[in-house]
Amino acid sequence: MPSSDALLADAGASAAVSMEVMRRRMIEQKEMQELSSQLGISIKNPDNLDLYREVADWLGTRYRRGGMSRKAVDCSGFTNIIYKTVFGQQLDRVSTTIAKNVKETITNKEDLEPGDMVFFSTFKKKYINHVGVYIGDGKFIHASIKKGVIVSSLREGYYSTAWRKGGRN
Length: 169
Description:
Elements: H1 4-39, H2 49-58, E1 62-63, E2 72-73, H3 75-87, H4 95-100, E3 104-106, E4 117-120, E5 130-136, E6 139-144, E7 148-153, H5 158-162, E8 163-168
Parallel strand pairs: 1-2
Antiparallel strand pairs: 3-8, 4-5, 4-8, 5-6, 6-7
Helix pairs in contact: 1-2
């Protein structure tokens, strides 16, 4: 039978572990609040924190056609980098081809999940020529020609009508 000292040591170790878990959860909650504010969405679940951290770091990066760096990026370059960094997946370099190669096509905006790709036909084009990453609450992050990396809404305005489909790998 364990001595009372051993039982106390075990109880102390359990309490220390519990305190550490609580401390980590508090830090995680604070980070989720900060990222929610930065991205303009409500983050309730820590499952996608790696995605949110990565995309938030890109906010404000300027646009440059063919760009694939923190200095400047285009829409497919941005999506490519996010997918490589967060999910370990290499995508094609052109939005049209990325859209053709998704493993699962999503036709209803309500079925999108954080991390899904969203595809658009902009400038009255008939083919897909723009891509971004869905982050939740009807919003996505992408590299805009005029504003660089920004968060936009799928529910209203220009991107609401330009949306063609979502994709999941």
